[in-house]
Amino acid sequence: MKIGVPKEIKKREFRVGMTPSSVREAVRLGHEVVVETNAGAGVDLTNDDYIEAGATIVERAEEAFEADLIVKVKEPQLPECARLTKGQTLFTYLHLAADKPQAEALMASGCTAIAYETVTGNHGGLPLLRPMSEVAGRMSVQVGAWALEASQGGRGVLLGGVPGVSAANVVILGGGVSGFNAAQMAVGAHADVELFDVNLMRLEELDALFKNQVQTVFSNPTAVYEAITRADLVIGAVLVPGGKAPKLVTRDMLKDMKKGAVLVDIAIDQGGCFETSKPTTHDEPIYEVDGVVHYCVANMPGAVPRTSTFALNNVTLPHTLSIANNGAVEAMRRDPHLLNGLNVMDGKITYEAVARDLDLEYAPAESFL
Ligand SMILES: NC(=O)C1=CN([C@@H]2O[C@H](COP(=O)(O)OP(=O)(O)OC[C@H]3O[C@@H](n4cnc5c(N)ncnc54)[C@H](O)[C@@H]3O)[C@@H](O)[C@H]2O)C=CC1
Ligand SMILES: CC(=O)C(=O)O
Ligand SMILES: [Mg+2]
């Protein structure tokens, strides 16, 4: 099969869909890989590295998009969607529930689109989302600390305080992968940390892991309201797989928060869990509403692209190879976890939560096998 690896075009996105070692594996199995020139330049992977691994370098994105299987990182931007056609498979993050224009463009293309973020795993969870949630969770505390600086419009508090002055209060909404990683970093910074979830079993695990370093709290609207009014930094890390994020903090609540408090909305790629969130970029990551600083970058791991590219390839490569070896339909027939990644096929939305949240017709993924 011919595999195409375009250069990412989203603002300040330096990750690349396949590393040279991933390319080498695909070539060893008899596949042809075309890589757009300088696709890996942002992570110091040169054209020569790819050529040495067996890839062909192409000058234009269109040529990488002519392949049978396109392997990317970020959701396709509209000009990229326009390049896709029936018979092609796209394997990347999609986050469709928050992006109707993209969903409609992928439907119109006729392509088969498999979303990293809904592929499941033998041990539960979302293994192709996991490494990027680890990165974003860890980053959320460092960007939150930066946004709390007075020069960014923040409250001017240091996460850990100093002897004689209290630490900052950090509230983390969602105790899954990103929330857990955020809590690890916040505890490491000596902040005062509260971690919310609606899954009691998960709260029990977190309580056992963190012991008295973190307060675990069952998430309900009253508890969340009370917590955010005390908080210096609130990190939104909730997820309903495939679906739109629930809005846990309304605009009305902001007036009761501390002036200069910071909201970091990791869940922005699924629409965000704060009513006042809107996607931002690494160029202009923050804005203020009612005295509260918002950080809503939808591709946080793009800021640490080397860590992120390698972490992502570790988990995507087995599926990339299975699709290349078997064709997308047979690969999904063999692996129900990969089938769970199918979001669009033959012009239909095949993931129920996406169809529901975008009010589009739903056709079960199984019906395409
Ligand atoms: N902005 C960015 O660059 C990135 C964003 N993400 C996004 O971060 C979000 C979280 O991802 P993960 O941590 O991997 O998800 P996860 O599934 O591991 O954890 C989500 C947690 O939220 C909890 N939850 C659901 N509803 C809740 C509610 N109402 N109150 C409190 N907790 C609730 C769930 O029980 C679960 O424990 C996703 O939207 C993901 O796409 C991930 C990586 C990068
Ligand atoms: C998960 C995601 O959206 C990202 O890594 O950019
Ligand atoms: Mg406390």
From TrEMBL:
Residues binding substrate: R15, K74
Keywords: NAD, Nucleotide-binding, Oxidoreductase
GO molecular function: alanine dehydrogenase activity; nucleotide binding
Matching CDD domains: L-AlaDH
Gene3D superfamilies: NAD(P)-binding Rossmann-like Domain
Enzyme Commission code: 1.4.1.1
Gene Ontology biological-process annotations: L-alanine catabolic process
Boundaries of every Alanine dehydrogenase/pyridine nucleotide transhydrogenase N-terminal domain copy: 4-136
Domain Alanine dehydrogenase/pyridine nucleotide transhydrogenase NAD(H)-binding: 148-296
Active site (record annotation): H95 (proton donor/acceptor), D269 (proton donor/acceptor)
Superkingdom of source: Bacteria
SUPFAM superfamilies given in the database record: Formate/glycerate dehydrogenase catalytic domain-like, NAD(P)-binding Rossmann-fold domains
Binding site for NAD(+): S133, D197, R202, S219, V238, L239, I266, A267, I268, D269, V297, A298, N299, M300
A GO cellular component annotation in the UniProt record: plasma membrane
Catalyzed reactions per annotation: L-alanine + NAD(+) + H2O = pyruvate + NH4(+) + NADH + H(+)
PANTHER family: ALANINE DEHYDROGENASE
Family that this chain belongs to: Belongs to the AlaDH/PNT family.
Name under which the protein is recorded: Alanine dehydrogenase
Source organism of the structure: Parvularcula mediterranea
Gene: ald
